Amino acid sequence: MKIFVKGVYQTNFGELWDKSLKDLILEAGLGAMKNAKIKANEIDLVIIGNKLSGKIDGQDHLGALAAEALKIKKGFRVEAACASGGMAVYQAVQAIKAGEVKTVLVIGAEKMTDKKNGEIAKALMGAASEEERRSGLSFVGLYALMAREYMEKFGAKKEDLAEIAVKNHKHASLNPKAHFPREININTVVSSGMVAEPLGLFDCSPISDGAAAAVISNKKGRVEIVASEISNDSLGLCERKSLVELKATQKASLRAYKKAGIKAEDIDIAEVHDCFTIAEVLAYEDLGFCKKGKGYKGINKPVNLSGGLKACGHPVGATGVKQIVEVVSHLKGEAGKRQIKKAKIGLVHNVGGTGGTAVVHILKGNL
Amino acid sequence: MKIFVKGVYQTNFGELWDKSLKDLILEAGLGAMKNAKIKANEIDLVIIGNKLSGKIDGQDHLGALAAEALKIKKGFRVEAACASGGMAVYQAVQAIKAGEVKTVLVIGAEKMTDKKNGEIAKALMGAASEEERRSGLSFVGLYALMAREYMEKFGAKKEDLAEIAVKNHKHASLNPKAHFPREININTVVSSGMVAEPLGLFDCSPISDGAAAAVISNKKGRVEIVASEISNDSLGLCERKSLVELKATQKASLRAYKKAGIKAEDIDIAEVHDCFTIAEVLAYEDLGFCKKGKGYKGINKPVNLSGGLKACGHPVGATGVKQIVEVVSHLKGEAGKRQIKKAKIGLVHNVGGTGGTAVVHILKGNL
């Protein structure tokens, strides 16, 4: 069975203090339906990807909430830490393949900025292992451990990581929906306040509000989902043999390439999970875009044209769906100022925690 | 494609202060695998149903946690308030039908008693609407509104509701894994401390710890899942036309009967969602076991032989899976002292919130 993305939408990402989570869910859902030229009664199921709402806003049961708000027959929520959005897309594909629904609305949504940063940092640690939480580690701390190991092992410098942030801010400068749509330079990054050595403030993705949505269907569309794969690894870093690779990304992407019948070099455009600069470097390598230990030198492929998590923003449950929105927009020629030419095959890579979960989708456009 | 339950397991339900959520997940998962005579490497996917862990214990990302702990390739978590367990079973059926996995381990798990009751009552309100939370309502308050309307409309008395609690405690007295395995009488219930008029303490299900698991597969087994349906309604009561019916239950069960090719009267045994005594009465009616307004007089069908949520206990995410465990045990003749004779068709009914979500499964045994 072939599965297509019929329409997509992204809300602004940023500090959206005048919008509730429900507002964002509604805006994204209705936006994707409009883009797909489809009405609520033609949608069989709504799936919500969200990580934090129950914890920081008190609202669980978002599947029922979205079904009610959007007048869709049924719905449920999936959670896989920061990969909740990608997992929701995966679930949509599975639901259609199961044969009982034809058209699914997937919404990733998160409202984070109403709370203090410290509360959010603590809440986010729900994606890590109990031992890591008890040790007082934060996510930037965990990724800093990976970055230090990487730099020592392969000779990468802070400036190399900084290039990722500079690139993604540059991309975001062309994205009117980005949280941080301004260019920065290497000095901005390396001289920014240290958060967890070697990662400074500008090595980190921000805390954002936002939502994104996609209408996914077995009815013919211009973009096909040719592979949808998930994989897992240990929650905690200390259970892993290596700190410089994400096995879950490697496994999910290998299966996805096989399913799509393509190789990494066939990917024309990708959105990867750059929650920290080091994460994008690891993604290049684990997705097979370059060899292990070489990613910090940069690659010759357009990655994170949205601005990535770094500069477009990272409302955690929304991110995995936003990545789909971005790639689909390019494949359909609807990406505005940042449109790239002749993109036919796109990859989307969403990570939960430090790689406890990875979700990889491959999309084919210009159909 | 036919789908079967290959094995089931329930941990003790109760105040399990010496066990962590991970302990419960492990015990239930390994127990179901042993019952199914299957090993971890034969399982393709683990799905966790859980509502509160992120909120009250800080641990999200339970799919990855379970996959790691049980050495299963991949996993994710679904949440649909108190229907999270039933939703996880539904997802397992969908995943197998989608064709990419053959055998799925479903685990419902919840750890609630480490926190103060007030904190838990607040956390549970995540299943309700924002307006209900802001109004200071609790779940017993919401169900009390339904009970008052029901009593006024149909002439039911507190004693009628109390019969449900007495029956379920009697059943639980035969269930060694029940939270409250002692018989009570009508007086115990009607003279118990009032929580929200007309519902007293013994009209309410308890706050429990516990887990349950089931191995679900397309490989032939002795119990077949012949229908798996979900439905939604508004989160909040005030958006509904009637307080004395759960539309989501009605819709899900009608679809399930149709899918299974049976009628309500063909059901030999059922586990229904009796979070409060009134809820079991409504379930009788909404599932078609009797006419609307007649449920309080009791029905002639074995319901909640486990003791129900009322007396077996209600670790929220575990409940929907435990209901499957109970019915499967009877259909396989493995229900010990409370085994009923000649049960061939069983129904399982799991509700999220006040009916924002309903999940109905129909199982056929003696195959």
Task: Explain this structure.
The structure is a homodimer of 367-residue chains. Chain A has a domain at 4-116 and 208-217: Thiolase/Chalcone synthase (Peroxisomal Thiolase, Chain A, domain 1, 3-Layer(aba) Sandwich), CATH 3.40.47. In chain A, α1 (21-36) crosses α3, α4 packs across α13 and α8 packs across α11 (277-286). Chain A has 367 residues and is α/β, with parallel strands linked by helices. The first copy, chain A, contains 13 helices and 11 strands. The mean pLDDT of chain A is 97. At the A-B interface, α3, β3, α4 and β8 of A face α2, α3, β3, α4 and β8 of B.
Whole-angstrom Rg of chain A: 19 Å
Principal-axis shape of chain A equals globular
Largest sheet of chain A: 9 strands, mixed
Question: Which series of helices and strands of chain A comes N to C?
Answer: EHEHHEHEHHHHHEEEEHEHHHEE
List keywords for this structure.
homodimer; two-stranded antiparallel sheet; 9-stranded mixed β-sheet; globular; 367 residues; Peroxisomal Thiolase, Chain A, domain 1; alpha/beta
Short overview:
Two copies of one chain form a homodimer. Chain A has helices at residues 21-36, 53-57, 62-70, 84-97, 117-124, 130-134, 139-154, 158-172, 186-190, 247-260, 277-286, 308-312, 316-331; strands at residues 4-10, 45-49, 75-79, 103-110, 194-196, 199-200, 210-217, 223-232, 269-271, 345-352, 357-364.
